[in-house]
Design brief:
With 196 residues, the protein is of the alpha+beta class. Helices cover 27% and strands 12% of the residues. A two-stranded antiparallel ribbon has the order 1-4. A two-stranded antiparallel ribbon has the order 2-3. It has a two-stranded antiparallel sheet with strand order 5-6. Strand 7 and strand 8 form a beta hairpin.
Length: 196
């Protein structure tokens, strides 16, 4: 039953851009709301097709990136609005991001594109105690490197765990003679500036 998004109203389907019976990120966003509504504790959505190196016409910044952004803007906005209207956003943490950022330039030839970048990238969080309508940190003027209020991935993980109600310092497991933590062996800090 919960998987059948055709049970939703036509206006809800339109808000998400969802089409029952077709595979799409919009359908998955609507399904995510339905799963959260049913008490599922963790839902992960994966959206393929963001690898815009510019090596072919199908993965350039000029034609393909605006299409991907428009698809995500519509469905993710509907998901956040829907969670908020149903009173679920206060207890649901939404994390949007990837495993790395993008360079401001491309090494390849052909269409305009951007390469992988581990020196600076953006993520966003919503709900579950996140201070809405704010931003934290910045890259340099060309978007190559994190330059202001840098957040290490272990600090991001500590912050996410904190927002989930977990003390990252207490989450350890013994492995090869060491007490390992989810945030790694180095020190981590919760980024308090993003908390409500």
């Amino acid at each position: 039953e919960v998987m059948d998004i055709a049970r939703e109203s036509q206006s809800t389907l339109e808000q998400y851009g969802a089409q029952p019976g077709k595979a799409s990120f919009a359908n998955n966003c609507l399904l995510a709301r339905r799963l959260v509504e049913q008490g599922v504790g963790f839902v992960q959505l994966f959206d393929w097709g963001w690898d815009f190196h510019g090596t072919t016409a199908g993965n350039d910044l000029v034609k393909r990136l605006p299409v991907k952004c428009a698809e995500n803007d519509k469905s993710v906005t509907a998901l956040l609005r829907d969670l908020k209207q149903r009173g679920l956003l206060d207890e649901t943490l939404v994390v949007w991001g990837g495993e790395f950022g993008r360079t401001p330039t491309s090494e390849g030839v052909g269409k305009p594109g951007r390469d992988h970048n581990h020196y600076g990238f953006s993520m966003w969080l919503a709900g579950a105690g996140v201070r809405g309508g704010s931003h934290y940190g910045a890259t340099d003027p060309v978007g190559l490197r994190a330059a202001e209020d840098k957040v290490h991935v272990r600090d991001l993980h500590a912050t996410i765990l904190h927002l989930l109600g977990l003390d990252y310092e207490q989450l350890t497991f013994y492995h090869n003679g060491l007490d390992e933590r989810l945030t790694g062996p180095s020190e981590a800090s919760v980024v308090k500036e993003v908390l409500a």
